Amino acid sequence: MAKDDYHVIVYYLLSYLYDCLKKGRPVDKSIIRLEAYPEEIDPDYYRYILEHLLKDGLIEGVSIHEVPILGQRNASQLRGLDNMRITPAGIAYLQENSFMKKAYETLKALKDIMPFI
């Protein structure tokens, strides 16, 4: 699996959020934001992933707002990244999904750049 694969990014986010929840730490926006990733990831792709994690009930605490752009279709903007939390469904997805296990193996090799793993 590539580092920019959907399941790798989802594993990274959910495992970070779960770690914060278990340790009672606030979410660090710099880790949640796109610049935390070691490789270039398209911002629309990353926003798509976050929106679907929210819509699928795997994360909570953030909201999606449509931002009108003159002459273009509306763009969405995520708000409240520092309030983001993993849900019980997100924890179950993280622990039970076979793709998450593959993503874990991919990220295990990258643990030096992801200190919470």
From TrEMBL:
Pfam families: YjcQ. InterPro entries: Phage_Tuc2009_YjcQ, WH-like_DNA-bd_sf, WH_DNA-bd_sf. It comes from the Bacteria. This is YjcQ family protein. The lineage of its organism: Bacteria, Bacillati, Bacillota, Clostridia, Eubacteriales.
